[in-house]
TrEMBL record:
CDD domains xrefs: GIY-YIG_UPF0213
Record organism: Lactiplantibacillus argentoratensis
Family: Belongs to the UPF0213 family.
Membrane-traversing stretches: none
UniProt domain GIY-YIG: residue ranges: 15-92
InterPro entries, A to Z: GIY-YIG_endonuc, GIY-YIG_endonuc_sf, UPF0213_domain
Protein name per the record: GIY-YIG nuclease family protein
Domain of life of the organism encoding this protein: Bacteria
Lineage per the UniProt record: Bacteria, Bacillati, Bacillota, Bacilli, Lactobacillales
Amino acid sequence: MASTSKPAASTTATKKYYFYVLLCADQTLYGGFTDNLQRRLATHNAGKGAKYTRVRSRRPLQLIYHETFTDKSSALKAEYAFKHQSRAAKLKYLSAHDVKI
C-alpha cells in the first residue's frame, strides 16, 4: 500500500526585520538593524554589540524608536539612510515620528 502524506501546512510567519534607534547614555544616537529587537538591545547593553556601543560611557542604551519591515533590504536601507544624516537631521526625523529626547 502506497503511503500518502499531506503537505505540511505553512506555519512559518513572515520574518520581520527592524531598523532601530538607541539613545546612548552620553546622549548620542545609534541606528541599527536586527531581526530580534530585545536580543540586540541586550547585546548592546552587555558591551558586545557594535563597536560604537561597546564604549562604557555610552551605556546603558535605551531603545527610543523602531520600524518594522518584511524584507531585510528595506530595513538595511533605512539604517544606512539614518546613519548618513547629521545629528540635526536625525533629531528632526525622530521628532517627525513623535520621539522626544
